[in-house]
Amino acid sequence: MNVDQHLKVAQWHMEQARLHATTEHTCGCPVTEHYHKIIQEVESGKIEEDLSCAVDK
Questions:
Q1: pLDDT per position in the chain (57 positions), as tens?
Q2: Torsion, Cα of 48, 44, 25, 22 (10° steps)
Q3: What does pTM read for this prediction?
Q4: Contact 20/28 with Cβ under 8 angstroms?
């Protein structure tokens, strides 16, 4: 994906999180190993550039 595409996906995720937080909708999204790694990185405060950009990591 290019930068613009990444930003659009991030925007979609942010809007989904906002909607989930403000409605009774429950999310069925699984926390994959890749997402778990991302969550840990964000929580550590040290977000590093992912040069390989692969979902299957």
A1: 889 999 999 999 899 888 888 877 777 778 889 889 989 999 999 988 887 766 554
A2: -100
A3: 0.65
A4: no
